[in-house]
Amino acid sequence: MESTSSPPSSMLKSRVSVWAPINSSGNHHPFLVFCFFIFFLITNISTTTCTPQISYAQHCDSVVPESAPTEQLLDSAAHGAEFLHIGNGYFTGGESILGETPKFGDDSSSLAMFRHGALYRTHTEGVIKVQGNLYFRGPRVITPLGNITHRRLLRFRINQPRFPIRRSSATFELYGFWSSDSGKLCMVGSGWSHPKQGNSRLFNVVFKLNFANKSSIIHSLVRGTLESVDTEDSFNYFKPVSILGISQNGYEYTLIDREIESGVFSEYSSDEDASLGLDVGERLSLCSFGRPAGEFELEFGSDCDTVNCNPLGRTPGFLPKFMSFSQIECQYGGKVHMILRFSNSSSNLFQTFIPDSTLVAEGAWNKKKNQLYVVACRILNVANSLADAFGGDCSIKLNLRFPATISIKNRSTIVGQIWSNRTVNDSGYFSRIVFQDTGNVPFDLPGLKYEYTETDKVSKACAKKKGVKHRGKVYPDGHSLDMRFDMSVKDSKGQVGWGHALPIFVGDKFVDAPLHGKFRTGSPRLGGFQAQVSTSHNSLVNVSYKLSFTSSPSFKLLGKSSPSGSVEISAEGIYDKETGILCMVGCRHLQSNKPSTKTDSLDCEILVNAQFSPLNAGGHRVKGTIESTREKSDKLYFQRLELSSSSIYLSQAAESIWRMDLEITLVLISNTFACVFVGLQLFHVKRHPDVLPLISVVMLIVLTLGHMIPLLLNFEALFVANRNRQNVFLGTGGWLEVNEVIVRVVTMVAFLLQFRLLQLSWSSRSNDGSENSLWASEKKVLYLSLPFYIGGALIAWFVYHSKSSHQIPSPRTRLAPVNYNQQHSLWGGLKSYAGLILDGFLVPQIIFNLFFNPEEKALASPFYIGTTIVRLLPHAYDLYRAHSSTWKFDLSYIYANHRMDLYSTAWDVIIPCGGVLFAVLIYLQQRFGGRCILPKRFRVSSVYEKVPVVTNDQL
Q: Which of 360, 663, 904, 927 supports an S-S bond with 895, CB 3.0-4.6 Å?
């Protein structure tokens, strides 16, 4: 064992951990970050030197006597200190530290957390010196932030403005001693608090914690207090903060074996053949399925109005809707211990520890019945004081199993029951509760089968849906991941909902691929199925789907708004890969404000039809309908819903990735050649400095601004990651962002070279004898070109307003995709027009040559010809891209970006022709004179000859 010397026990750690809210927008100037770092360093040093030493002996000697350290422990678990940790604790009090703290159930996002640092053996046997950090996090405060754009493989989604979470917090740096015999820990130290409002404050504290040497289902609570060492009249004094956590290290199973032997689980035990078995081996397979399962929905009986149905033992009338497993630990022989959490909202299930909504549980797997048997205990006496809380009332039982078969009406892969073995008249009794997973995370359990129970109904409903086979058109294979899609659903009044359709089973094969998995080019198989080709020779295949969508509050269904705005439909039917027709019958889960059993709240009179587009077609990928087969007089009847999807196929995604890689290369090559051509012009003027005044300053300003403006718009990309940027991400990792930085570095080099050329040309005119005539010609260029530039900008403004006035706004929800091809913005139009000006960069030089009529060769041929080619090649590429790609998505365009220039079939022909014409005119002007392109009668100009001046002496 290695050992190192430790500092004296009276020395207080000087490091202070400071938490501060950070703006998640990512727009931090490097200079400001540097200033903040210097300020933090000075503040940290000043507070360290001014922090008073706190006597451990004065505050903690009565709990754990101080002892001199001998050596550092490098393996804490070997010395019994492995459970000196609270990862998700609950606390009460602390108003003076955090400003405000939540009441029970108000905000489950608050927590207390303790982590030990260095550990030292001491001269006293069983006493260990501990250094650690205690952290408090207060309730959430949400503030607006800018839009965040995410680009996924199969869909493009734009969220509403994301809100950064600002929290009050406090961090304390502590040291002290822990006794393995008594399980008590006492520490002293200091730390800073950061309330949501007000200034940060420094507190000197003593921290006391009582850990059990070994934990069990009853003895698993960890209690502690944080107290101030200052007097009550001090400004930094605060009332004690109580802390409660759960420790399951060194866990001993004390109840489950005894409960199984008593036979209490046999009452609700199911048939062995109805459930799937698990490999208990070294670790129970439940840990592989229970953790990602997420939440479970609770289904109550019909007697909850007369008897208590709440497993938490609260007042009748309050019923939690969801349950989750957390802190699951599986042991040898199929045993498991865990925490059960209950909540009225699924979003609160995975937050912090709330004592009166939590059960401590342990269980074991029964191989004969293929079920997990669990016994759970409540945490009692929490409302009075956290120091008096204890585990008890272990009359709660739970069983869990994995059904061998699922169907359209029973989609859950994990089901179970919770009940109490008390009698109805006993305190703590509650009626039996059934729970099942929500189906949001499907599991490919070995042996799981799907039973198609609606085949007759499907045959009758889909008999008339025979499509026409088209030669040469290829539709998605039924076993391909192209069968999943995002969708928009529109009702009869034009209100739109957004969601997705996921295949669960195709034939007898489970579809285990996630909705937003990354696409890897070259992968022969995806999600367990071939990407495009099926080994089945039959064009018809049975399919099972889950369709779900979220609508706006105004979306009407059943003649009234949906209670939660979400609709879920389980469907099964047939898919014909030769025609691309999907026909299914569905069951809609009816929503109710009162908890009920799902099988009692299904509407299975629904028909779903969808038509997939060919793999090589553009436009909408899927179009279809969702309609009710009931009579219009039926209370469950609803009008037809139109569904559509613009998601892309996997082949289109692969094509886009290849194209984007190609465009990155083209941009790098283009910008590199731009640098080379400007460098050649600089070399030309170095050899012929007399031509510098003859270069149009207006032209050089246009070219310089063409490189400078993109740098200003994307300056932060060179230093920090801007989270508000619209990042292109189609499964290529960070490759695009890395190349964006490289492209902008090359653009900066081109800008610096262009600016140098502008500087040389400007300064050369000050030293030229014909300065007045040069600037007079330049002013004429400006007077002539500026009205055209302004007129073009006004036209762009007029086009923007005319398109905006004819565009009908539509409401958007959080999941609403945006079609950027149909969006028109004034700023976008001006940027495209600026690209057009840059394409005609030679126009000012042509006009300057007409007025000044120079005979020298001002521009090097590689410069004006090469720069013209650099500006015109994107238009040629855009023509190729428009005719070769079946899927068009402007935001994925890197080279020939439609937001930076005018691109269309017409513009892609007009602009190159104009650019070639301007280059030819420059060539003619530099060869035959600036006015050679004019008629002969306009070419004559007055030429003044310089003659020697005759003085009086010569006369």
A: 663
Tell me how many degrees the CA angle 782-784-786 measures, rounded to the nearest 5: 60
373-390 b/e with 16+ CB inside 10 Å = b?
bbbbbbbbebeeebeebe
Q: What is the pTM of this model?
A: 0.68
Tell me, what amino acid is at 738? V
- Which tokens go with 527? 């999600």
Nearest of 112, 250, 234 to residue 172 by alpha carbon: 112
List Cβ neighbours of 920 (8 Å cut-off, separation of 6 or more).
none
Identify the helix (H) or strand (E) that includes residue 834: helix 826-839
pLDDT at 536 over 50: no
Listed residue (675, 728, 907) closest to 152, CA to CA: 728
Report the 10 Å Cβ neighbour count for 263. 9
The DSSP code sequence of 473-486 is -----TTSGGG-EE
- What is the residue-averaged pLDDT of the chain? 75
The residue type found at 115 is R
- Rounded to an integer, what distance in angstroms lies between the CA atom of residue 604 and that of residue 683? 79
User: Could you write out the DSSP letters of every residue in 590-630?
Assistant: ---SS---GGGSEEEEEEEEEEEPPTT--S-SEEEEEEE-S
CA–CA dist 261, 82 (Å, integer):
33
Q: Residue 743: which H helix or E strand, with range? A: helix 735-766
Residue with tokens 């439940």: 286
- The three state secondary structure string of 229-244 is CCCCCCCCCCCCEEEE
- 701, burial (CB in 10 Å: exposed 0-12, middle 13-18, buried 19+): middle
The per-residue pLDDT for 143 is 43
Amino acid identity for residue 177 in this structure: F
203 pLDDT more than 90:
yes
Cα 941-945-946 angle, rounded to 5 deg: 145
**644 φ, ψ to 5°?**
-150, 160
Say if residue 592's pLDDT is above 90.
no
Tell me how long the chain is.
955
**Helix and strand tally (H, E) in the chain?**
14, 34
- 372 contact partners, CB below 8 Å, separation of at least 6: 284, 286, 336, 363, 364, 365, 366, 399, 400, 401, 416
Query: 861-884 vs 826-839: helix axis angle to the nearest 10?
Result: 130
Give the pLDDT band (50/70/90) at residue 711.
confident
Check residue 673 and give its pLDDT: 92
Mean pLDDT of 725-731: 41
According to DSSP, the residues that pair with 131 across neighbouring strands are 175
In the predicted model, what is the mean pLDDT of residues 877-891?
72
> Which is higher by pLDDT, 276 or 240?
240
The tokens describing 694, both together, are: 């003859």
Alpha carbon distance 406, 100 (integer Å): 48
